[in-house]
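Sequence in, structure out. Go.
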Amino acid sequence: MIKVPFKNNRYWKSVLGRSKHQATYHLLQAVGSDIQESRKQAGWTQEDLAYESGLSVMTIWNVEHAKTLPRLTTLLMILDSLGLKLTFKGFEAVSSAIITARKNKAA
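Output:
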């Protein structure tokens, strides 16, 4: 499971107080780092993850290195390929529906 760094309101206020861009970048770095770590633990290269997720190697690289803000469907496809879930309260059913819809569209 990806651990999104939502510590508490005071934490985010301190980060957001500096700049919204810095807060977003911090979140992207945390998620990208967790994805990269999970990929390496699985023994996969970026090419392997790209193949399994149906995305390009450049997309995988960009997400892992926090170079772009990925679409939710892109993030969910990567996580699904790694057997991970992005969970927020009440979010699992929505993410499963999006993954299923995307896979059906690709087929």
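Check: DSSP finds six helices and no strands in the chain. Residues 9-106 form a domain with the 434 Repressor (Amino-terminal Domain) fold (CATH 1.10.260.40).
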